[in-house]
Write a structure and sequence with these properties.
CATH topology of the largest domain in chain B: Aconitase, domain 3
Number of strands of chain B: 19
Structural class of chain B: alpha/beta
Helix content of chain B: 25-40%
Largest sheet of chain B: 5 strands, parallel
Structural class of chain A: alpha/beta
Order of helices and strands of chain A: EEHHEHEHEHEEEHHHH
Number of helices of chain B: 16
CATH class of the largest domain in chain B: Alpha Beta
Radius of gyration of chain B: 21 Å
Largest sheet of chain A: 4 strands, antiparallel
Oligomer: heterodimer
CATH topology of the largest domain in chain A: Aconitase, domain 4
Number of domains of chain A: 2
Distance between the termini of chain A: 37 Å
Shape of chain B: globular
Helix content of chain A: 25-40%
CATH superfamily of the largest domain in chain A: Aconitase, domain 4
Radius of gyration of chain A: 20 Å
Number of strands of chain A: 8
CATH architecture of the largest domain in chain A: Alpha-Beta Barrel
Chain lengths: 205, 460
């Protein structure tokens, strides 16, 4: 269950590349434990450190620029989060303090994982993202108003489905929410069991 | 009674809506869940720690495929540092939850998306999810099958449902019949190259057309497999006689009167004439050449007769070690890999073996073949294909995901150039600094022989 999200203001970290895949967000070799924590060090490991497996920062990578040490927003390009479905990518981002990704578009599995972990996926046009990056000033993300605001007062609208917005704003546990439908689920399955008996393996195998 | 024409996707969606949620979202029933050892323990342990149980363990399966060793004589030990814990903890959690596990040395072990169809776990019209992006592979059988994260896997196990925003629907129609050496892998790479790795926009993409109708089930799985590289939620193909024949008699498929009833239902699973799609793509498969990637995204793919684009991104070129305008054919390679959920099935191995028979891989080229499942391996060996691979200088492995991705254990060396029948040419995908070129098994095999990226039409 994630911390509820309303508005957030932060200097955004520009990572203006297309197709930032989840292998870059956290390489498989950095997924060292069977749990969900201890992943922040592996975030962007292939770009962030000078050597694979090492921890000496590569000064050329934006995340090692001290200006962005407290950034909670990432700006990026097309198709952010493509590739492997590993939720570790989102767990690593959240553990490192990121709450918003602003990108031209998102891979669908990644966007779903973000919402389940309190990270807001904000899709904006390339020119808006370029403006936010060029400003070099703090950006505000207002989820209730579905707006991104720059320091000089410019605003861009974004859209997110109602279900995801509600989950993010209220920090809800999706399983608890769904279990309120337990009667609906049970009734649906009773009906479905006679319509599609082959689906229910317990009885047929 | 007249109803508006519906797409195949819309029919499956409507059949699974348990309740409507917020605007545009629904609680959708999930029929099958497949876990693997890379994330299975995390999901099952998290569920148990929250005091929740798996609602219907008979419809949940697990397999060791992602980091299990693929060298002969394997056990729980794996070259990935700490990897053994992923296997033993997933095993313990699966047993505790009462889930059927296809374990390390189970004769039915294999890559999740290869064994699920082999066992008839996926069926037309089902919803099937797995915490693996290539779950879309199984859409080849007319199922709605897609990859999810660990949280969604927990949600589905606890409730038998997922909360989902209804996705859009696209259709890619492949007309014509591909020429020799042009495979389903080349067709899907052509689609991604033309319309971008983000082109699918979270939609379900239905694959249709003469070339898809003519394709065998394994080829259709290859086509659907890379829907995720197109940023689609999934790929799907209307099930036909080939799909039904493929599934009949499989272990978890219905039988007898149950089969007949299921078949009646499955015959409805096709898009109605006049059904509309949010976007349509048309590709003449007869015009395509074998494809190969030049860069670090599947959208960086070109016909094998082509050149690296003049406007290629400089950072990508630096990583991949090629120059703008350079011809892709003839680029020397260090290694060749045949396997994966994309191209590790029997027809893929037969195609590669056709090129390899009686020949040897070029000196200095490391060549590895990893069958997609132990059943594929047994069937290949029954045909003598293992001798073709071994005689050509390929390693012949036990099944698993193997070197499709690098988990910290076995991999290729930094700077090495690999031609691979896998699905991702991302930076570091097959090891830090490794340069991956994705292509069909035919192109991989002939390139291994020549020691350089080679057009299979020159050899086969």
């Amino acid at each position: 269950m994630a911390e509820p999200f309303e508005t957030l203001t932060s200097l955004p970290m520009p990572l203006l590349r297309d197709n930032v895949d989840t292998d870059q967000i956290i390489p498989s070799r950095e997924m060292k434990s069977t749990g969900k924590t201890g992943l922040a060090e592996g975030l962007f490991a292939g770009w962030r450190y000078l050597a694979a497996g090492g921890r000496d920062p590569d000064p050329a990578f934006v995340m090692n620029d001290p200006r962005y040490a407290e950034s909670a927003i990432i700006l990026s390009g097309r198709n952010f989060g493509c590739g492997s479905s590993r939720e570790h990518a989102v767990w690593a981002l959240a553990e490192a303090g990121f709450r918003v990704i602003v990108a031209e578009s998102f891979a669908p599995i990644f966007a779903g994982n973000c919402v389940r972990n309190g990270i807001v996926p904000v899709a904006l046009q390339a020119d808006a993202i370029a403006s936010l990056a060029e400003g070099g000033t703090p950006v505000t993300v207002d989820l209730p108003r579905l707006q991104v605001l720059s320091d000089d007062g410019r605003a861009w609208r974004f859209s997110i489905d109602d279900e995801s917005a509600a989950m993010l704003r209220e920090g809800l546990d999706a399983i608890d929410l769904t279990l309120k439908h337990a009667d609906d689920i049970s009734a649906w399955q009773t009906c479905d069991r006679s319509a599609r008996p082959w689906v229910y393996l317990g009885e047929n195998v | 009674m007249s109803t508006a024409p519906r797409t195949l996707f819309e029919k499956i969606w409507a059949d699974h809506v348990v309740a409507q949620l917020a605007q545009g979202s629904a609680l959708l029933a999930i029929d099958r869940i497949f876990l693997h050892e890379r994330t299975g323990a995390a999901a099952l342990n998290s569920l148990a720690q929250a005091g929740r149980v798996v609602a219907d363990p008979a419809r949940v399966f697990a397999v060791t495929d992602h980091i299990v060793d693929t060298r002969p004589g394997r056990d729980d030990r794996t070259l990935m540092p700490g990897g053994q814990a992923f296997i033993t903890e997933t095993r313990a959690a699966a047993h505790a939850a009462g889930i059927r596990l296809f374990d390390v040395n189970d004769p039915e072990q294999g890559i999740v998306h290869v064994i699920s169809p082999e066992l008839g776990i996926v069926l037309p019209g089902l919803t099937l999810i797995a915490p693996d992006s290539h779950t879309c592979t199984q859409g080849a059988f007319g199922a709605l099958a897609w990859g999810i994260g660990s949280s969604e896997a927990e949600h589905a196990m606890a409730t038998g449902t997922l909360r989902l925003k209804k996705p859009g629907v696209q259709r890619a129609t492949f007309s014509g019949i591909p020429a020799g050496c042009v495979t389903p892998k080349d067709m899907i790479l052509a689609l991604i190259a033309r319309h971008g790795a983000g082109g699918g926009k979270g939609c379900v993409v239905e694959f249709a057309g003469e070339a898809v109708d003519a394709m065998n089930m394994e080829g259709r799985m290859t086509l659907c497999n890379m829907a995720t590289e197109f940023a689609a939620m999934s790929g799907i193909i209307a099930p036909d006689e080939k799909a039904f024949a493929w599934l009949e008699g499989r272990r978890y498929a219905p039988s007898g009167a149950g089969w007949d009833a299921a078949l009646q239902s499955w015959l409805q699973l096709r898009s109605d004439p006049g059904a509309t799609f949010d976007r349509e793509y048309a590709i003449d498969a007869g015009e395509l050449a074998p494809m190969v990637s030049w860069g670090t995204s599947p959208e960086h793919s070109i016909p094998i007769t082509g050149k690296v684009p003049e406007d290629a991104n400089a950072r990508v070129l630096e990583y991949i070690g090629l120059e703008a305008g350079q011809r892709i054919a003839g680029v020397p390679i260090n290694a060749a890999f045949i396997g994966s959920c994309t191209n590790g099935r029997l027809s893929d191995l037969r195609l590669a073996a056709k090129a390899l028979r009686g020949r040897r891989v070029a000196s200095g080229v490391k060549a590895i073949c990893v069958p997609g499942s132990m059943q594929v391996k047994r069937e290949a060996e029954a045909e003598g294909l293992h001798r073709v691979f071994l005689n050509a200088g390929f390693e012949w492995r036990e099944s698993g995901c193997s070197m499709c991705f690098f988990a910290g254990g076995e991999g290729f060396a930094p700077g090495e150039r690999v031609i691979s029948s896998t699905n991702r040419n991302f930076e570091g995908r097959q090891g830090p600094g490794v340069r991956t070129h994705i292509a069909s098994p035919a192109t991989v095999a002939v390139s291994a022989l020549a020691g350089r990226i080679t057009d299979p039409r020159e050899v086969m």
